[in-house]
Design a protein that fits this description.
The chain is 22% helix and 21% strand. The strands form five sheets. Strands 2-1-15 form a three-stranded mixed sheet, with helices on one face. A three-stranded mixed sheet has the order 3-4-5, with helices on both faces. A three-stranded mixed sheet has the order 6-7-8, with helices on both faces. It starts with 20 loop residues before the first strand and ends with a strand. It is of the alpha/beta class. The protein has helices at 48-64, 108-118, 154-163, 211-220, 229-232, 253-261, 272-275, and strands at residues 21-24, 68-71, 88-91, 94-97, 122-124, 136-139, 142-147, 166-171, 184-188, 201-204, 225-226, 240-241, 245-249, 265-269, 286-287. The longest helix is centred in the N-terminal third of the chain and has 17 residues, at 48-64.
Length: 290
């Protein structure tokens, strides 16, 4: 009598880190004095010195991973400038500037575009409302683009014209996840430059999206990591990956477990003070792609 064959467990993928260049802004003027997202409450005290300390840990983590970390000078009166991801979107040495929804943040757009110009990027001044890499994520050979709360869908068309890439619109429906990078984490960006059809790998929170957007995500990323509501609620998905090392919120323990099981190396950091402004690891990190 022959034994029933036992299916071998799937091999854990071998992950390879790749060099990253990122832009950050020290939170020297961080505080919460207005409310433009559900996380912000001006009645709650904030500790700027603690925010700086926590941000410094993130900066030091990136340096330890061998990242090239560029810095933009913070500007007094712009407390959210620490969330550098919102300052633009950079691919192929082209920097598409940000045009913020709320008046409180609108001066950040020109400040970041000035930095891009001085750094030698080809700057494109936006016509449409958009909040940069907060809502635009390069995955494989496409750009995932969020809308619903901040960036408008017309910016997705502008993005496609500028970069000549396919842009996939995803509708956000939960105000707690008002930027795409709070609801999706890019784990492995895959091929960049349109040279192949690699789709990349992501993690996401289903409840952050409407049903048509979920259908797109399920079809395009059938093996995506689905995070718990609890981990998403502390912006666990607001993380940054070099293809192997993934810097995440230290309290996102189940997400950490899922990443390890998939062959990634999660590194937890505590940005609890910056969470009071509605941002986490990825919000503080703008990737610069030459």
């Amino acid at each position: 009598m022959s034994a029933t064959p036992v299916e071998a467990p799937a091999a854990t993928p071998v992950r390879t880190p790749t060099a990253r260049t990122v832009l950050m802004c020290k939170p020297e003027y961080f505080t919460v004095v207005y409310r433009i997202n559900p996380w912000m409450d001006p009645a709650l005290p904030t500790d700027t010195s603690l925010a700086v300390q926590q941000w410094q840990t993130l900066y030091d983590t990136y340096i330890g991973l061998g990242f090239d970390v560029q810095l933009i000078e913070p500007i007094d009166g712009l407390p959210d400038m620490v969330y550098a991801a919102n300052g633009g979107f950079v691919i192929d040495n082209i920097a598409y500037g940000a045009n913020f929804t709320y008046p409180e943040r609108q001066p950040e757009g020109p400040a970041y575009m000035d930095w891009f110009r001085e750094a030698g990027f080809d700057v494109r001044v936006p016509e449409e409302i958009n909040e940069g890499e907060g809502d635009f994520l390069l995955v494989g050979d496409v750009i995932l683009a969020g809308t619903g709360f901040r960036s408008n869908s017309n910016s997705h068309q502008e993005l496609a014209r500028i970069y000549g890439r396919d842009v996939i619109t995803l509708n956000l429906v939960n105000p707690n996840f008002y930027h795409l990078d709070t609801a999706i984490a890019v784990l492995d960006a895959g091929l960049d430059g349109g040279s192949g059809s690699t789709t990349g790998e992501i993690a996401y929170l289903p409840s952050a999206f409407d049903e048509p957007s979920l259908a797109i995500l399920r079809e395009r990323f059938p093996d995506a990591i689905i995070v718990t509501e609890e981990d998403a609620a502390i912006l666990g998905l607001n993380s940054y990956s070099d293809g192997y090392n993934i810097v995440i919120a230290s309290r996102a323990k189940d997400f950490e477990r899922q990443l390890r099981a998939s062959g990634f190396n999660p590194i937890g950091v505590d940005l609890s003070e910056l969470l009071l402004g509605g941002g986490g690891v990825k919000c503080c990190t703008l990737e610069l792609r030459r």
